[in-house]
UniProtKB/TrEMBL annotation:
Residues 1-26 form the signal peptide. It is found in: Membrane. Keywords: Membrane, Signal, Transmembrane, Transmembrane helix. This is TMEM205-like domain-containing protein. GO terms for cellular component: membrane. The chain crosses the membrane at residues 48-70, 82-103, 115-139, 186-206.
Length: 211
């Protein structure tokens, strides 16, 4: 995913540049109407993609897969899917930040618009922390736990009850469960915080709609 990492880096730098030097890109009241419309479209599409993706993976798809797939198969699938998932969220959040900062330059923005930019930046920060830090650590810890479980003859069942049962009499598995649970918990917390930041922004956008 080297190409996507480079693309994300470029978009992130663009977002930072728009926030701190909006005049360079012609941001402000004199911006051409077509550019303003394009920025609004980019913001809306990027936000909607991030919101829908996070909603599905966090509250629907992930739960269905956990309840129906053998645990190791589920973990291996998540290990392939989550780097792409957080890459998509990070790119979308960066585009949303750049577009919103262009439409609402900091020097001209109202307090509520500055708060909204802060929420979008928070979502970007949490998604990047997952992409760069927590997800790689979680995947590495998962692989180590899978190895221990394979040696114990478990992991092909659906659900985690067998793991908990064996961990009661196996200190090595119990210790690994604790480490995995801590890292996975931090990853889940960052994911929920990013989703919450997007949820707050969705309320702001809803207030701007006129039917």
């Amino acid at each position: 995913m080297a190409w996507s990492t480079r693309f994300l880096t470029a978009v992130a730098f663009l977002a930072v540049g728009v926030i701190f030097a909006p005049d360079v890109l012609g941001s402000g009241p004199e911006s051409p109407a077509v550019v303003v419309t394009a920025a609004k479209l980019c913001h809306l599409l990027a936000f909607a993609t991030a919101w829908g993706t996070a909603l599905w993976v966090t509250f629907i798809g992930g739960i269905i897969m956990f309840k129906n797939l053998p645990r190791h198969q589920f973990g291996n699938l998540q290990g392939k899917m989550f780097p792409a998932y957080f890459m998509v969220l990070s790119v979308c959040a960066a585009v949303s930040v750049a577009a919103f900062a262009y439409l609402h330059p900091w020097s001209l923005a109202s307090p509520i618009e500055r708060y909204q930019l802060g929420f979008l930046l928070s979502a970007l920060g949490f998604d990047l922390s997952n992409l760069i830090v927590f997800t790689p650590m979680t995947i590495e810890m998962m692989k180590k736990r899978h190895k221990i479980e394979r040696d114990l003859g478990i992991g092909e069942e659906v659900g985690g009850s067998k793991n908990l049962e064996v961990a009661k009499t196996n200190p090595q598995l119990a210790a690994m469960n604790k480490k995995f649970g801590m890292i996975h918990g931090l990853s889940s917390l960052a994911n929920i915080m990013a989703f919450g930041s997007l949820a707050i922004h969705s309320w702001f956008l809803a207030g701007k709609l006129h039917f």
